[in-house]
Write a structure and sequence with these properties.
With 156 residues, the protein is α/β, with parallel strands linked by helices. It has one domain: Glutaredoxin (3-Layer(aba) Sandwich). Helix content is 29%, strand content 29%. It is globular.
């Protein structure tokens, strides 16, 4: 299954860094910024997470919840969250089922090997649970601001 802008976003029920279950359907009435990233505490992923952290209040001001998703474990997520003082939940997708549903589990190619992993992507879901915007193969610089601007200009 792949997601489509304008359609209902796939619901999910995933464990967060603190062990609590997070369901998309429980967030109805809020915009959701669902961002997929490859790995905790790597340079690009840290820059992206800290960008969301630094703009967290601005997202709250437009009634948006930020959720990060990667295949890392609950323990890894908790350490990453504490190390960088992240004020939002990181969701555990160890079996990459959600990443597959959103079409971001991709074959990656490097000169010395091929492997599957997360393609850095962000999805903006509106208060009714519909996908309103997708950013695929994200470049970190300026991305957080673009996502915030989209919500301000189109969903607020």
């Amino acid at each position: 299954m792949t997601v489509e802008v304008g359609k209902k976003a796939p619901d999910f029920d995933l464990k967060a860094n603190n062990g609590e279950q997070v369901k998309l359907s429980d967030l109805k009435g809020k915009h959701v910024v669902l961002y997929f990233y490859p790995k905790d505490d790597t340079p690009g992923c840290t820059t992206e997470a800290c960008g969301f952290r630094d703009n967290h209040q601005s997202f709250k001001d437009v009634n948006a919840v930020i959720l990060g998703v990667s295949p890392d474990s609950e323990e890894s997520h908790q350490q990453f969250k504490e190390k960088h003082d992240l004020p939002f939940s990181l969701l555990v997708d160890e079996d990459h089922k959600l990443a597959e549903e959103y079409g971001v589990w991709k074959l990656k190619k490097k000169p010395e090997k091929e492997y599957y992993g997360i393609e850095r992507s962000t999805f903006i879901i509106d208060k009714e649970g519909n996908l309103q915007k997708e950013y695929r193969n994200v470049q970190v610089d300026g991305h957080v601001e673009d996502a915030l601007s989209f919500i301000r200009e189109n969903l607020s």
